[in-house]
């Protein structure tokens, strides 16, 4: 039998995406909004290693880093070094074999002001590489609201959801586009905007993007960079990318992932 491995991997990511978006809503609706009034907090990965179940292969080895809220972090490195694997752990799609992923609050003095809390996956939004391949709906509105409960009655909840929808659409500049439009008929740049709106509508605290510029023409790339610059003012963003020059101006902190899943802090080589 001939197996199309690309198609298998595409299907797996599509299933991941659908499960993630459905679970995301279910988890999010039950979680308490957590907005600490503290000096600042950091998303922290502490000594994380990962070995896929049933294998002896370590894809990540003692990875540690800290990303302060409202900052922009970038991870670069060779293909196959483990960057996507790390993002999947941050989004809660897989669990670390050892180590932890948490949110740490710090006081004025720069020391932890309380015990770290595990990072709930519902506080993380992830935009996969080539997100447009995993769109599931026939129109923009359904794509953004996919996984939302089909409510009868409760007008207040409906109004709240409608407001969030409007905010997300405005945020990514999709307001000129008819919500009836087929997502697949949008231009490359607008498809990426839609993929971002799908995540922003859930108001994540940490937004993760895997190769946000891949496969776009120069105009769409410039468009997405501009959009990320705008989002950076409101959100903590972690990007995996090979497009270092185009993103350099946005980056506050960067790390290189070396083969074997070893992460080191390193300035961008641009
Ligand atoms: N479930 C798995 N079992 C075994 N090996 C895996 C599994 N998932 C990923 N790998 C391998 O782990 C390595 C790291 O993969 P990963 O996709 O994280 O790399 P990457 O740095 O994101 O690469 P790219 O830049 O090409 O996206 C690759 O060699 C990949 O084949």
Automatic annotation (TrEMBL):
Assigned keywords, A-Z: ATP-binding, Nucleotide-binding, Transport
Keyword Ion transport: no
CDD domains membership: ABC_cobalt_CbiO_domain1 (cd03225)
Gene Ontology CC annotations of this record: chloroplast envelope; membrane
SUPFAM superfamilies cross-referenced by the UniProt entry: P-loop containing nucleoside triphosphate hydrolases (SSF52540)
Domain of life: Eukaryota
Every ABC transporter domain range: 43-270
PROSITE patterns named in the record: ABC_TRANSPORTER_2 (PS50893)
GO molecular function, one term: ATPase-coupled transmembrane transporter activity
Protein name in UniProt: ABC transporter I family member 11
């Amino acid at each position: 039998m001939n197996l199309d491995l690309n198609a298998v991997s595409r299907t797996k990511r599509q299933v991941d995406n659908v499960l993630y978006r459905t679970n995301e809503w279910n988890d999010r609706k039950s979680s308490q909004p957590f907005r600490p009034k503290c000096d600042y907090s950091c998303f922290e990965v502490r000594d994380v290693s990962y070995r896929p179940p049933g294998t002896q292969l370590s894809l990540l080895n003692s990875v540690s880093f800290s990303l302060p809220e409202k900052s922009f972090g970038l991870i670069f490195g060779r293909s196959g070094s483990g960057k996507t694997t790390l993002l999947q752990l941050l989004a809660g799609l897989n669990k670390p074999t050892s180590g932890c992923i948490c949110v740490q609050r710090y006081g004025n003095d720069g020391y932890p002001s309380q015990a770290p809390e595990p990072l709930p996956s519902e506080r993380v939004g992830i935009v996969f590489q080539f997100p447009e391949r995993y769109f599931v709906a026939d129109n923009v509105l359904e794509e953004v609201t996919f996984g939302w409960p089909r409510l009868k009655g409760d007008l207040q909840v409906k109004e709240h959801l409608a407001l969030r929808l409007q905010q997300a659409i405005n945020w990514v500049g999709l307001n000129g586009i008819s919500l009836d439009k087929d997502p697949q008929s949008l231009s490359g740049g607008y498809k990426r905007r839609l993929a971002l709106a799908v995540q922003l509508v859930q108001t994540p605290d940490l937004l993760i993007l895997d190769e946000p510029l891949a496969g776009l023409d120069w105009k769409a790339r410039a468009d997405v960079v501009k959009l990320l610059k705008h989002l950076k003012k409101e959100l903590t963003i972690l990007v995996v990318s090979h497009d270092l020059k185009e993103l350099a101006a946005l980056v506050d902190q960067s790390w290189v992932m070396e083969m074997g899943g070893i992460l080191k802090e390193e300035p961008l080589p641009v």
